[in-house]
Amino acid sequence: MAALVGCGEEPVPVAGQEIEGVLPAQMTERLDGLRVQEADCIYLSEAETRCFARGTGPAGAFELPVSVSGDQRRPVWEVAEPDVVAARRGTVRPPLALGSATTVVGEGSERVGIRVTELIHPLEVSYRENPAQPGTRYVGVRLTFANEGDQRYVDQPQERVNLRLSNGALLAPAYITEGLCATESLARIDLAPGQREEGCIAFEVPASARPDRISIEVGSSHRVLEWRLGLQGT
Predict the structure, then answer these.
(1) What count of other Cβ atoms lies within 10 Å of the Cβ of residue 232?
(2) Same domain for 109 and 76
(3) Which of 89, 111, 137 is the last residue of a domain?
């Protein structure tokens, strides 16, 4: 995905870096009938960039999560079909409130319950082990996953969660070696039917920025849900 970052000989971005140069016109072709006006994107790996596309459609304004793979000449835009249909109909689901839960139905008998329970702001970590960059601080988001289906549910939440700031910027999770929000907390979950797991994901946020939403891509459905965050907890 380096080819989506600006023009010319741009360096390959690091995971979690915001990128520029995404092509809304080509996104519009993929979304068929929806006019993409702008997109905020974050580089996750050489294989994937994640964007939030904003624009207008037959039913008015919309905002959709989009995964981008390939290169600038042949980008592949992937978005869950239910989200596209909702945007066309004007029924895009608004962000959930902090503390609320929802259930997502995936392939087969997959049913996953998710609750975002708390924004820890600021998050205290060992700065000796995990030094923050100058002008930044850590925040943590606590989540609970519950397997409500009758088949085993395996996922890697750390790779499917992003934090959006009030200025529209997207952040990938920070790497934390120890403490409540250590990266291994939700690096992988393996839940038998009826099991649940609670964990915390850390983000390194500019001191002047305000966390606004947390977005989570869920299981085989590839649906992306959002929760609005309030500055609650310590």
Answers:
(1) 12
(2) no
(3) 89
